[in-house]
Amino acid sequence: MTTTVEATKPAAGKGGGLAGMVVADSRISFVDGAAGILEYRGYDIRVLAENSTFEEVAYLLWNDHLPTAEQLEEMRRQSRACRFMPPEIIAALRNMPRNADPMAVMRTATSMLAHYDPESEDNTPLAHTHKACRLMGQLSGVLAAYERIRRGEEPVKPRMDLDHAANFLWMLTGDEPDPQAAKALDQYLLLLAEHELNASTFTARVIASTGSDLHSAITGAMGALKGPAHGAAVQEAMEQFLEIGALDNTEAWFDSLAGSGRRVMGIGHRVYKVRDPRAEPLMKNVLKMVEATGERQWFDIAQRLEQLAMEDEYFKSRGLSANVDFYSAPLLYSIGIPVDAFTCMFAMSRIVGWTAHVYEQQANNRLIRPLSNWMGEHQLPWVPIEQRG
Known about the structure:
- This protein is mostly helical.
- The chain is 54% helix and 4% strand.
- The strands form two sheets. A three-stranded antiparallel sheet has the order 2-3-4. A two-stranded antiparallel ribbon has the order 1-5.
């Protein structure tokens, strides 16, 4: 006899993408989507954006407290010594197709880096600290080196006298980094370093819960971030601004969306029901770049598009506001980052949060093994192959 399970709408936490389900205890970051709050280790993201740096925030996320001046200087010394990559990785990047997706290249390089890390299979706390430090430096080097290689240029060696953001710009261009661009990039990295149990972070924790190594967990996180519903949305936001092209086209472009099913990329968030708390400091950074360069085309388009969305009844009724991608896109573009490498910049920042979560998972581990909501039949009778039709 065949038993049938009645098909019902999946409940939250079953077929609903784990929406509303608590799956871990954490001290790393806190998100209140209704109030528009994001905190790193108890510190409001807006306070950190005003007062801190990416390197200091990396220390905070890794150590659960702000550093003293001596601790920060030691962390900087150690992290800057981790910037050099094995020559085998540079050789591998030279052999990558010039038209490869930069995020796929970074994902592959992350996995390869494990082969040249002397502590790759060591999951002790001290080894984790060393590996997290190396990955922070090496991933920025991978992105800079591959971008230069695919342009037909030679990779540039890192400098020890520059902070993380400025050194990346140096390795990307080979020119002395512009202070305003370096500051804007540093704050971008700070603002995207961590965001609770998003898809990529959850992926990293699931892998870590099996007892696997850090490089495997980060490779998995890279794969999750690459998806258009997660990290790749920032690239789509910039492509949208490029499609609009000019400020005078913004309203007509927005009106053309009515009934088309198309979305405004960078408007709306899975968690935030108000404006993303990271949007304001990012917008201020874009404006500073506008003032420094005089190039305001993309900022003006973004600002006008956000205004149109906020005045629209459809967006207002659904609580759809600007998210982190909306002003990240024109900021990265103004700094000179290639559009197809925008998601890699996200990863270059989020490596800090990912490694913090892997450590937290390993420190109090239990295998993450959820259940599924079975929607099929039970105890089906076996039918010999000659009787199937």
